[in-house]
Amino acid sequence: MANRIKIYILNADIMKEELKISTVFPVSAKVIYDAWLDSKEHSRLSGGKAVIQPWQGGKFKAWDGYISGKNIKLQPYARIVQSWRTTEFQKDDIDSRIEILLEKTQGGTRFTLIHKDIPEGQGKKYEKGWKDFYLKPMKDYFKKESKTKS
């Protein structure tokens, strides 16, 4: 699993962090895309309750309300861009942004998550959170899905 954290300066007063994580799931991009934007399936793949309006401009909450945001750009089966924040963000923090890229590859679909505008000092924490609370459960979820689709 490739990953990277980068720190950059937005302006002289605000520092933001960025991370990139990539892995391959043994299912099609359509299966991943549809599950990410479906309240019931997103809840199942992450283990926390999700409520998602699955259209561009639609709002979402995930992990029992810990995460909230809005669908900014949806390109079916290829790309999802969302504003993203947790209850740990300060009121004056700007929303961070996630971009999910889905690319067909040998053995399934490459899932690449780029998370930008993370408040300073929180990048490593969110990288661990993505791995522990999304990528690991998603591996199990999509492994089961690939068996039911076979």
In round numbers, the mean pLDDT is: 89
Strand content: 35-45%
Uncertain spans, ≥5 residues at pLDDT below 50?
5-13
What's the number of structural domains? 1
C-alpha end-to-end distance: 25 Å
Radius of gyration: 15 Å
How many individual helices?
Answer: 3
The CATH topology label is Alpha-D-Glucose-1,6-Bisphosphate, Chain A, domain 4
Q: What string gives the helices and strands in order?
A: EEHHEEEEEEH
**What is the CATH architecture descriptor?**
2-Layer Sandwich
Query: Which structural category do the helix and sheet elements fall into?
Result: alpha+beta
Structural commentary:
With 150 residues, the protein is α+β, with helices and mostly antiparallel strands. It has one domain (2-149): START domain (Alpha-D-Glucose-1,6-Bisphosphate, Chain A, domain 4, 2-Layer Sandwich). Helix content is 29%, strand content 45%. The chain contains 3 helices and 8 strands, in the order ββααββββββα. The chain has helices spanning 29-36, 39-46, 123-149, and strands at 2-11, 14-25, 51-52, 59-62, 67-75, 79-86, 96-105, 108-119. The protein has an 8-stranded antiparallel beta sheet. β3 and β4 form a beta hairpin. It is globular. The two termini are 25 Å apart. Mean pLDDT is 89; it is low at 5-13.
